[in-house]
Queue: 3 jobs
Job 1
Amino acid sequence: MNDRKATLLEELGRLIRTDSDVTCEPCDSLALVLQFDGPSSTGMSGYCFVSNGSRPFAPDSNFDPICDLADELYELSSAEGRPLQSLLVRMVGPDWSPAVEEEFKNRNRWQVTPANLDTMVESLRPKPGGD
């Protein structure tokens, strides 16, 4: 992973854990899925997990900082000749370091739909000590 990408991912993790406009309600872990259709066209979904369930990740007021970082990640991957289609970011407390999976072929790899809601959300759940 190049230095700029690592910096952007660390910034994404910092935003999610500390920015009052972005932070979700207290949880044990979090999964965030970013889907890309091109520059400045990012879909986003995510879940906050607690021991007895999950709830959608919904920043208090502002998705813009996450979308701005996502746009930079997309532009960086495009410049490298491998435009991102989707990105899965998993974070587990207490350190909240992001673990990332990139998808370059299937934009919908981690998409949650009514048909797969229960199984997909659970498959996104970060595992303590690694994915």
Job 2
Amino acid sequence: MNQSINKPTNAIVISNKEGSIFKSWLKVLSPIHKLNAREIDVAALFIDSYIKNKESIINEDLLNEVTLSKETKRKIRNALNLTHTYFQVIIKELKNKGFITKDNKINISYIPSFSNNTIVLSYIIKNET
């Protein structure tokens, strides 16, 4: 029987009890992106800000500017009770690991398709042999 690659035949539902669905999203993907726990905390709050701002900001450049603004960074730093110095170290690592691009934008591959408090993730594993 030929199964379509576009229609998943099985699904795993992960209930989020951590408070941040984006933190859970990043934890599921951690074998791929290699962010550590504190980087995940910070990245999840950046994604949350990005998703919330996307509702009112259509221009992608402006959206990234607001998401990575000093004000947003200050809010994230305060929410996680991080020192300015430690936060700067985390930002540098997020840049080194590709979460924040060289042109100071959130790497779009980290932004999930999100609606109705749900993230749907599909894996395609292709055998190269």
Job 3
Amino acid sequence: MQLLKSIVRLLCTGSHRSTVPTGFVPLTEIRSALVFTDPAEQGCEEAVRAARKFFEDKGIDVSFISAADRDIRRSADLFVSLCGRKSVSERYAAAACTARFKVGRHQIDRQLYDVTVTDGSSQPASGPIEAFRAIAGILNSVK
């Protein structure tokens, strides 16, 4: 069933792609955030707790999704992917999300993300918590 879901998502990525222009958006203009996670990745739970605290402290509504969710097409002002490995589900969720600002741990085809966080060698940042800390620093610096 997971394979079929991945195939359908891959085929639908183009037709469900958001047409909302993206770019750097300051936290003061963000009202909602959508965080895509990989629950199987070590450190994911800690990253989810850190993300929840960060966004709630800023008064931003935050939702979490993963590849296992039935419907990953969601709307938000900010899309953050904490996945360390590329997947069809991440690609679909990032492309379909109507977020005005998109951040990830690696670039997906067609330059889906406005910002990517790597460890300096074009590889994804070490783990989801390290990636989120770097992303939080970037989000705090956007004015």
